Amino acid sequence: MKILVIGSKGFIGSHCVDFFSHKNEVWGCDVLIDYNTPNYLFIESVDSDFQDIFLNHKFDVCINCSGAASVPFSIENPYHDFQLNTLNVYKILESIRKFCPECRYISMSSAAVYGNPTQLPIKESSTLAPVSPYGIHKVMAEQICKEFSDFWNIKTCCIRIFSAYGPRLRKQLLWDISQKAIKQDKVLLYGTGNETRDFIYVSDVVSIINLAITHSDFNGEVINAANGKQETIANIANLMLKALSIDKSIIFNQEVRPGDPLNWEADITKIQNWGYTQQFNIETGINNYVSWLKENGLA
Q: Residue 124 in contact with residue 222, Cβ under 8 Å?
């Protein structure tokens, strides 16, 4: 297969490039100028235009890992978040529709589309009630994928990623804990510590993307990417400090950050029926992450 990974220099995108390159012709696309990487396409970060990419190449699969992935960023920069997470999806799909209509398109969505669920575990059919601009923009992107599938028969699916983590991630909870543990006297975090997330190691995310290529109906289908397990933020913080071999106090400020849900646990029946099994438990994943931090002088 000839696969295009948009956002190939980012967290999930770079892991996709590594994984799919073993058996496929993989092209990367990103906003960073890179003259040393083969099969690499540069795209402008402002007012991106994807038409030439799909005019000049016939891809079998496009995996879109680009965009912003931060709730606070979406609150502070809502229009920019909309451009990256919603408008660019439309631009990509319009370019596929015009120049490469047989290309299967996989969009990275987010569990943020669910907001604060009223029932756990969260099924793909659960009500969407996002509590942040980021979540709203991801819902809109999913609707765009469904639009292109319904009206023009473009093959699309959206993968709702829950709390992904692993090497190369330099933001979000685990990164925040590591940097505070290294640089500060104590680790101060939002919330009570009893909030839960459904964590999934990045290699397991990529395996789900691979399963989607084979098993998705590509009719605007949505797919949960998680492990169906709740982990408290307090437990994650303790596991991080243990892996870092740092003995410091963890303090929760008892404040819920705007846009943050309280509890997440995914129903993963769909991917289990496709053959998904978790390869990295939370302890192994955190140890791998800390090893990467140390190898790169970040811890």
A: yes
